Amino acid sequence: MMIKLRDALNYSPIELKFGTSGRRGKVLDLTQLEIYVNVRGELEFLKTLGLVDGGIRSGDHVFVGYDLRPSSCFVMPKYDGRGGIVQAVVAAIEDSGLHPTNLGVLPTPALALTGWKNRSASIMVTGSHIPFDWNGYKLNTSTGELLKEHEAPISEHVNRIRSACYESSLNSSIFDDRGMLRSLRQIDSETRGFPNLYRDRFVDAFGGLLLKGTKILFYEHSSAGRDLYPAILEELGAHVLRTGRTEEFLPVDTENLQQEMLSSLQNLADEAAKNGFYADVVVSADGDADRPVLLSCENGRLRFIPGDILGVLAASYLDPDAIAVPISCNDAIDQSSLAGALLPKTKIGSPYVISAIERAKAAGRSRVCGWEPNGGFIVGTEFPLDSGTLAPLPTRDALLPIVATLLLAKRENASVGTLADRLPPRFGCAGLVKEIPRSVGASLLREISMELESKQVGVDECGSLLFVVPDIFESLIGTDLTDGVRLTSGKGEILHLRPSGNADEFRVYAVADTPNRAQEILKIALQGVGIFKRSASAGV
């Protein structure tokens, strides 16, 4: 009697869902079978599209890249032998009648650009900034990112592929009863024959050693951009000192830099200064290098420039006529000289920002860009500049906002910190509560919404969240439910709460007229979310 793979699996499958951008899940749940099913379904969907809409055809190349997270390429004994995601991706590409082309470790925007310039789909295996024990991947069409409107039809293809795989005979399946490949597909040696299109884009736009005289301390850690980004900065004329390289993967969340990391970066800057290198800025990027980190260095002390403020500075250099940002961005932009170019704010996630950019282009705007609070900068059109032409790159990019901000500083003959001080005095900060399931996060939002309607305030002894910052609630003048719950008080103070779209985390954003007040709001809100988490875990 034939034993179906479905009946032979010795675990309960956890289906991989779309997150804010791409698919993410716990490594323990990421069987190669689950990765294979989803990648094949997405590729089959792309085959249904016209070429002008990002479609692909049998026999096409699919570019593959990955970050330095161990589970991307290797099975992990500590996670029940899961991992080897790249091998599952390669198997899915081959079994879809396509040719995987391995570009190795590189930044996500560099992989995407290579794919689009060659009219090919691409897949980046990465967990980005989320915790070490998570991972995933992100697929791009042959012309742009997957958009939210694609997710429903993709799910139909995934369900069909899943059914076919699960109903196949265990003996004939390429997967064993653990959902892992019986034999790992060979990952071809990295292909180096393609021109460095990402590097060329920067040279074409900013050639001429425009950053000459700028001293940059580049924190390498385990970022996929740790080799390429410093090389480009040097080619643009900057004096770059590389530091902090590590072989142990470090998840860097650019929206939630912890004090421990800030202290480590300060120590690296101090050590460089002792050896005669006085940095103007310290820069870095997250794991897959699509989110920037920039700290100004003045009188030896580092100051973190949040990603949404970095976006305002970069855009000030580019001079756009349309700007798309999500609702969670610092509202300094609303009060800045860029306010006239600001489009209606979107839900959180690059697909939403990109959709807004496309609508602006269709409406005739010619210099269109956008960014997220994490600093990932998206360029939707060409930008003619005095130094050259900046080509579009409609996906998150970490290096452009760094370069544009440094060029603005040179043009204005000012430090980056001084540029930030010239913006409207709006100070944002962000934090998160870890290990809070997204279902619990959704329950928290529902309770907040109900309590807003009933006008109740505080946290009771049982841990029921009635509201987390009473003085904002009492003078509430605005509620925005675009993505999560965003509240504005009569003093202009903002509290924004939402579950992460990528991991079991709950994010909190605060904005106020002083850094101390923003931190105070954040602290109170995080405490309230923590109480709710504990009460939910206890079944209260």
Structure in words:
There is one protein chain. The protein is α+β, with helices and mostly antiparallel strands. It has 3 domains: 163 residues, Alpha-D-Glucose-1,6-Bisphosphate, Chain A, domain 3 (3-Layer(aba) Sandwich), CATH 3.40.120.10; 225 residues, Alpha-D-Glucose-1,6-Bisphosphate, subunit A, domain 3 (Alpha-D-Glucose-1,6-Bisphosphate, Chain A, domain 3), CATH 3.40.120; 112 residues, Alpha-D-phosphohexomutase, C-terminal domain (TATA-Binding Protein, 2-Layer Sandwich), CATH 3.30.310.50. Helix content is 35%, strand content 21%. The chain has 16 helices and 23 strands. The strands form 6 sheets. A 5-stranded mixed sheet has the order 1-7-6-2-5, sandwiched between helices. A 5-stranded mixed sheet has the order 9-8-10-11-12, sandwiched between helices. Strands 19-23-22-21-20 form a 5-stranded antiparallel sheet. Helix 2 packs across helix 6. The chain is globular. The termini are far apart. About 2% of the residues have low confidence.
Strand content: 15-25%
**Count of separate DSSP helical elements:** 16
Basic shape: globular
For the report, how would you describe the main beta sheet?
Answer: 5 strands, mixed
N- and C-termini, Cα separation: 49 Å
Helix content: 25-40%
User: Can you tell me the CATH topology of the largest domain?
Assistant: Alpha-D-Glucose-1,6-Bisphosphate, Chain A, domain 3
Got a strand count? 23
Under CATH at level 1, the class of the largest domain stands as Alpha Beta
> What kind of assembly state do the chains in view correspond to?
single chain
Based on secondary structure, the structural category is alpha+beta
